Amino acid sequence: MNPRPWWRKLGHGSLLLVATVYCVFPIYFMLVQSLKTAEEDVFGNPLIVVNPTFENFEELFERKGEARGFVGSVLRRNYPVLEWLENTIVVFAGSATVTLVASILAAYALGRLRPPGFRWWRRAIFATYVIPHTILFVPLYQVIIRLHLDDNLLALLLVYPTLALPFCVWILSAYFQQFPREVEESALVEGASRVTAFVRIILPMSRSVIVAAGIFTVGTIASDFTLASVFLLDAHNQTIPAGLGTMDVALDELLAVAGINLMAIPVVLICAVFARGYVRGLTAAMVEGA
Amino acid sequence: MRVATTARRRDIQVAYLLLAPTLLLLLTALAYPVGWEVWTSLTDLSPLKDGPTAFVGLENYRRFLADPEFWRAATVTVVYAAVTSVAKLSLGVGFALLLARPFRGRALVFLAIFLPWAYPASVSVIGWYWTLNPPIPTAYSVFMGNVKYAVDGVLGGGAWAFLSVTLFNIWRGSSFIGVFLLAGINAVPPELFECAVLESKSAWRRFWLVTVPLLKPFLALAVFLSLTTAFADLANVWMLTAGRIVYPVVGTHAYWLAIRGGQFGPASALSLTLVPFLLAVLLILFRMFDPPEKERA
Questions:
Q1: Do residues A196 and A268 both lie within one domain?
Q2: Which one of A230, B43, B90, B233 is separated from B194 by 20 to 30 angstroms, measured CA to CA?
Q3: Which residue does chain B place closest to A257, by CA atoms?
Q4: Total of domains in chain A
């Protein structure tokens, strides 16, 4: 390829810069705010932090020191953030596992065993995305109560997977169905069972697509706010998003921003570690016709 | 082709068994609630009303069609979905094309573009809200206040809040679509793009004649996911406007009716009005990303 003229390089470079700033700025801004002292939040430059401090994060876990005056002592609340953190980890890990296991099983059924009408099964599962979740939580609450899961983390383990399942089943079954039959049959001929063939051959070969499905699941679950705050009422049962929603924003602005980062940073790190695998998995699933 | 051997029959049984967890989850979390919603939309169910619930048939739906408030919400919803989808797609295509070729620092830029989606929306929306509408005198609240009044002054009250919802949706969605389309571009053999370079000199023509058709299935999937999030975008609208909704979308209108007004019947009818539309879109898009002739042996 002939070398590109300087102005095209410059154009490409500046577009990259604009795209990066556009994507990262809001995140940077939230991170900067969470590292500020209350004084700096009011008087400092909003775009930078001069004296970074973790006091907001510390205070999130343990409110210490005197409350600022009478109003402060009346209005300040303690938040069980450690419990929120635990709950969030349990809910995320649990629902991601449920989603992946269920979707791998279903995808294997649709992609390899192909029961009659498997194409329509796939489409029907995917089509559940047209259902608006707007007021669905009203009847959903009835289901949850009937199952005695109200104010229980298990409720979210039941509900969250449905947010990501359709997409995961879609890409996993697209990927599974492109394996030539021989891949599995060679193992079957050698006396391995279908399960062994699946675990030893298909699963390892599908690692990247499973990673993609997993990242999609985590990203989707992590974006939910409504369901968590509707189903988890007790402060000790809440996840971080639900808990943050109960904070008084006017009083605890810095605390809440710290809470945002507390939740976001681990999720972002997980996603960043697997980011390449995510793209590779999506590509792998889509090469064989999405 | 009918091979009704015992092995095949067993395969089918196992298939249903493996489908069971997924179907069970979807049935409990979706089928009953949707059924309830359909039934409720035909009644005047309300927790605020004494006496038995009456079956009113299509009355709830009929009332909407005559209600200007509904048409306003519907218009806002359609405009919102269209504007955000177009913006997300164009930005997403742009991001994907920017990242399509190797260059120094590509991994970093990729990560930057991936971030808005990876950053949990449940909490980033809270951050956006405070940033755009600072609650207490922070260092930036004067500036944001001026922006808010400038926008509201030109476009009317509530415009800034609605604009911030739109911006947030685009910010997060364009990241998802960009990464998704990048995966799509990677799935296209590079020879096809190289041939295109030889065929046509105009990058614009090449984009429309080669890139877009090649990416059609991925674009279709992206459009669908974008539309469903835009239509169902209740939580974000709610959070970013703190419940003071001047521009109702169908979702918030239904939420308002159900939770604040206790009118479950009309609210159910309202939120169901979107379903046939989305289903029709999906059926059209299925032809693009799940073409039927692709039967593999």
A1: yes
A2: B90
A3: B127
A4: 2
Of 1.10.1130.10, 3.40.50.150, 1.10.3720.10, 3.40.250.10, which CATH number belongs to B79-260+270-289?
1.10.3720.10
B55 phi, psi to nearest 5 deg: -85, 125
Q: Are residues A111 and A249 in the same domain?
A: yes
| B125–A26 CB contact, under 8 Å | no
Q: Are the Cβ atoms of B234 and A226 closer than 8 angstroms? A: yes
Rounded to a whole number, what is the distance in Å from the CA of B155 to chain A's nearest CA? 24
Alpha carbon A259 to chain centroid, angstroms: 16
CB A88 within 8 A of CB A240: yes
The answer to ipTM > 0.85 is yes
Residue numbers of A between 248 and 287 with CB closer than 8 Å to B: 249-251, 253, 256-257, 259-260, 263-264, 267-268, 271-272, 275-276, 278-283, 286-287
Q: For residue A265, which of A240, A289, A283 has the smallest C-alpha distance?
A: A240
290 residues of chain A, pLDDT tens digit each: 456 778 888 888 899 999 999 998 888 888 888 888 777 777 777 777 777 888 778 777 765 444 554 455 455 567 788 888 889 999 999 999 999 999 999 999 998 888 888 888 989 999 988 887 777 888 888 888 888 888 888 888 988 999 899 999 999 998 888 877 777 777 777 777 888 888 888 888 888 899 999 999 998 888 887 788 888 888 888 888 888 877 766 666 777 788 888 888 888 898 889 988 899 888 888 776 54
Three-state SS string over A267-281 comes to HHHHHHHCHHHHHHH
The amino acid that residue A268 corresponds to is V
Helix (H, G, I), strand (E, B) or coil at B43: strand
The DSSP code for A200 is I
Residue A62 and residue A147 share a domain: no
3-state DSSP of B197-253: HHHCCCHHHHHHHHHHHHCHHHHHHHHHHHHHHHHCCHHHHHHHHCCCCCCCCHHHH
Q: Does A174 lie in the same domain as A135?
A: yes
